[in-house]
Design brief:
The complex is a heterodimer of chains A (271) and B (362). With 271 residues, chain A is mainly α. Chain A contains twelve helices and two strands; from the N terminus they run H-E-E-H-H-H-H-H-H-H-H-H-H-H. The radius of gyration of chain A is 23 Å and the shape is globular. The mean pLDDT of chain B is 85. Classes of the chains: A mainly alpha (271), B alpha+beta (362).
Chain lengths: 271, 362
């Protein structure tokens, strides 16, 4: 209990403390109720960041989940080829987040990066520091590169757990490849895919390091996601009160959505 | 329906055919007649499932042929072979209803929807699945699930044979009995060719017209349940079938007699002609055919060991020399430790040379 208190409750209560008081200095603090919450909710920058965040999570999930399943289906099923493929696939997952950001920051640079140069050479005007579309494309691509392997590994684990008898029965029943995927593989992968969606949603909704390293939230505020906005508010503007209120709401939103996913997961495994 | 012929079949999973120990099937020649119910019986790892998967085409044999009605189907894919197979564990399409599950094999083959509906209703009727048709298959119990798997095997009318790979393993004993009866009934009603793999001898003997006993990749004997029980061709079959199995007593031919430790029997009858010098011999007799000798009868001295009460009879252990034989005593149980003079009825006493049956002693 004491451990839990030190690790979770006390830091959290500090934030709660900041979120309901206006503090000028030691001894000069005033209880102001929900004012900071109101201010954070009315901040147009926060609104923008929230919508961008939803769009980002949506796009990333829509690409990574199907792509990860496709990769899992194409992986060799057994033997040394399978092991090798899994190791290569898992490499991006082993790279620290800020290094991922740095890799892509360099890789996508229009003047010196391989990707940036190639894109500009074939006539696409690509510049993530100046153009919002380029910046989004870079960050989405980076996230897909970084995290699709996780989805693929989960999906692969799900596929491997299907007994051979299912595939044999499908052959006996004359089912085609598409029917095997639709009626055997997809239903059997349902629970691992729910976990994949949950993990990818939570992580992408909290993304900070990689876009911070690559674009710093720009150009303008085109890639300023919720956590970047939060850090700007807390560290940049030193508005600790609104930032505390904001982070509590941020936490609650993620908790709420995760709870919804969890409930769906439980229902799925119960039926 | 079709006659299925297995011709000079050999199979190895790692492709090495020169090493006999690596072979899953050593050399099998077998004919499955149209419309009969067969049981493929043998201990785990004897090659019975391999045989089944080769017939259905899930596994391609290393050498030899599989013929359906004289047509070589060795290179034909499973889905083209018109074979139905039911597996050990129920295989269901979880997202579908019972009805859709049953219709699946027909839908994949582009059968006309009205025909599908009719067949599904018929099969559901046979298997008492009617009330469940609209339910999701995923939520049902093991017995119902296996019935659905069974139904998917029966729904096609053009199948050459229905293959079962220990389908009742996961079913509760009392439901097992019921399903087995149902299966037997369906076989008789529809004239299906059934091949039923099991390691349970009572299942094999009750269900099948003919039982094929396999061991270590070879067919030991194929015959009616009665033939397997009364005159096992091979020591393995005698041991494997019956509970307890047949008694075997190693012996030597000395002049006109068969001698073993603790006694001897006259070597007469057909058995005498079938043996060659140098073969290892043994006598085989079922526990219920050994009996106390009447005065004047040929007899062997034995010591009674442990006695078990089996409800309708007693099973006793008889020590002859250093061998222990089981004997079934119908009514009275003599006290253990006593001696008994036992008679080996010549027509029930079989002689095996190098583990193969040569004949009885009558």
């Amino acid at each position: 209990m004491a451990l839990v208190a030190f690790s979770a409750v006390i830091p959290l209560m500090t934030v709660v403390n900041y979120s309901v008081q206006d503090i000028f200095g030691p001894g000069q603090r005033y209880f102001i109720g929900v004012d900071w919450f109101r201010e954070a909710l009315r901040d147009p920058e926060v609104h923008g960041a929230f919508l961008r965040q939803l769009a980002f999570s949506g796009i990333v999930l829509a690409i990574e989940i199907p792509l990860g399943v496709a990769v899992a289906l194409l992986l060799p099923k057994a033997g040394w080829k399978s092991s090798l493929a899994i190791v290569i696939l898992a490499l991006p997952l082993l790279i620290p987040f800020n290094v991922v950001g740095t890799i892509w920051q360099v890789y996508a640079r229009p003047e010196i990066g391989f990707l940036g140069r190639v894109l500009n050479d074939i006539g696409i005007d690509f510049n993530y520091t100046g153009d919002a579309v380029s910046a989004w494309a870079t960050i989405v691509l980076m996230d897909v590169w970084h995290w699709t392997p996780l989805v693929a590994l989960l999906a692969f684990a799900g596929l491997r757990s299907i007994p051979d008898a299912y595939y044999q029965a499908a052959r006996i029943d004359g089912a085609g490849r598409l029917a095997v995927f639709r009626f055997i593989e997809l239903p059997k992968m349902k629970s691992v895919l729910t976990i994949a969606v949950l993990l990818r949603f939570m992580d992408s909704f909290m993304i900070y390091t990689e876009p911070f390293v690559v674009t710093g939230g720009g150009p303008g505020s085109a890639t300023t996601f919720l956590s970047i906005r939060l850090v700007n508010m807390a560290v940049g503007q030193f508005d600790l009160g609104p930032a505390a209120a904001f982070s509590l709401m941020y936490f609650l939103v993620i908790l709420l959505i995760s709870y919804v996913f969890y409930t769906i997961l439980q229902r799925a495994s119960a039926s | 329906m079709a006659q299925i012929v297995i011709d000079a079949l050999r199979h190895s999973y790692d492709g090495r055919l020169d090493d006999p120990d690596a072979l899953a099937l050593k050399q099998v020649d077998l004919t499955w007649e149209d419309g009969r119910a067969y049981a493929l019986l043998g201990p785990s790892g004897c090659g019975k499932s391999s045989m089944l998967n080769i017939i259905s085409g899930l596994v391609r044999q290393s050498t030899g042929r599989v013929l359906f009605d004289g047509r070589d189907v060795s290179d034909l894919a499973t889905e083209k072979r018109n074979i139905a197979q039911v597996f050990q564990f129920p295989v269901l399409y979880d997202t579908m209803t019972v009805e859709q599950n049953l219709a699946f094999p027909l839908r994949n083959r582009g059968t006309d929807p009205a025909r599908i509906r009719k067949r599904v209703d018929e099969v559901a009727g046979m298997l008492d699945l009617g009330p469940l048709l609209k339910k999701r298959a995923a939520g049902l119990g093991a017995a119902e699930k296996q019935k659905i798997s069974l139904g998917r095997g029966l729904v096609r009318e053009d199948v050459a044979a229905v293959l079962f790979d220990e389908p009742l393993t996961v079913i509760d004993p009392h439901v097992k009995f019921e399903l087995r009866r149902k299966l037997k009934m369906l076989h008789e009603e529809l004239g299906l060719t059934l091949i039923y793999v099991t390691h349970d001898q009572s299942e094999a003997l009750t269900l099948a017209d003919e039982v094929v006993v396999m061991a270590e990749g070879e067919v030991m004997q194929a015959g009616t349940p009665e033939a397997l029980y009364e005159r096992p061709d091979h020591v393995f079959v005698g041991n494997f079938i019956g509970s307890p199995g047949m008694n075997f007593l190693p012996c030597k031919a000395i002049g006109e007699r068969l001698a073993f430790r603790g006694g001897s029997l006259p070597l007469t009858g057909r058995a005498a002609a079938g043996i060659a010098p140098g073969q290892s011999l043994c006598l085989g007799i079922r526990p219920q055919y050994l009996r106390p000798a009447r005065p004047g009868e040929e007899a062997v001295e034995a010591v009674l060991g442990e006695i078990q009460h089996r409800g309708d009879c007693f099973m006793a252990v008889l020590h002859i020399g250093d061998m222990a034989l089981s004997v079934r005593l119908p009514d009275s149980a003599p006290p253990p430790g006593g001696t008994m003079r036992v008679h080996f009825p010549p027509d029930r006493t079989l002689l095996y040379a190098d583990n193969r049956l040569t004949g009885d002693l009558s």
